[in-house]
Amino acid sequence: MATEITIIRHGETIWNAQRRIQGQRNSKLSENGILQAELVAKALDKRQFDILISSDLERAVETARIINTQLVLPHEYNVKLRERSFGVVEGLNFEEMKHQYPDEFRRYKERDPEFAFPGGESIQQLFNRVTVEIEDIARKFDQQKVLIVSHGLVLEMMMYKTFSINLTDPRTFSINNSSISSFYIDGANWFLKEWGVIEHLVSRNVLNEL
């Protein structure tokens, strides 16, 4: 039997709204992000989970805490579920990044899996970190239902793993803040149950997409 992993992207942050690269730096949830977290908490209330695991970055922790006021689950913090590290460009918007680091920006846009900004992490390193850790979590909580609060590129890597997408290929799917996605994981076998559920957000016009 597989482990069911439901994963939530954290609520919108102030830097999300400003289109700044967050990476592993902290930015607080915006008012919109707090509302998103409250809405996803209500959407999850009728589901059953055994454990809540979040990235240890502030935006994921805050989202998880809001969700857990509704669910009241054991809550673990996991550094390996952090967002990709973008090194020296964290805190910059895309125009600033393009101006200050033109060569690095070009390689970033080319989606070279081995490229990392100085002090940062490559797509390949992120993929390895995320997929190994998710499989470890699935083994640890075998046949249980795990709720995770993490980050957009963590979700992206999970989709690339599930469908064996080449890391050089551009992403062709949306990742909304506080959307709900679920996977079944059985050893090295990954199956998608649902992706990017946003019904709880649509009526309140609080969407924010990566």
Automatic annotation (TrEMBL):
**Keywords carried by this UniProt record:** Hydrolase
Q: Name one GO cellular component term.
A: cytosol
* SUPFAM superfamilies named among the record's database cross-references: Phosphoglycerate mutase-like (SSF53254)
Domain of life, source organism: Bacteria
Listed transmembrane segments: none
Which GO terms fall under molecular function for this chain's record? fructose-2,6-bisphosphate 2-phosphatase activity
For substrate, which residues are the binding ones?
R9, H10, G11, E12, T13, I14, W15, N16, R59
Looking up CDD domains in the UniProt record yields: HP_PGM_like (cd07067)
Q: What is this protein called?
A: Histidine phosphatase family protein
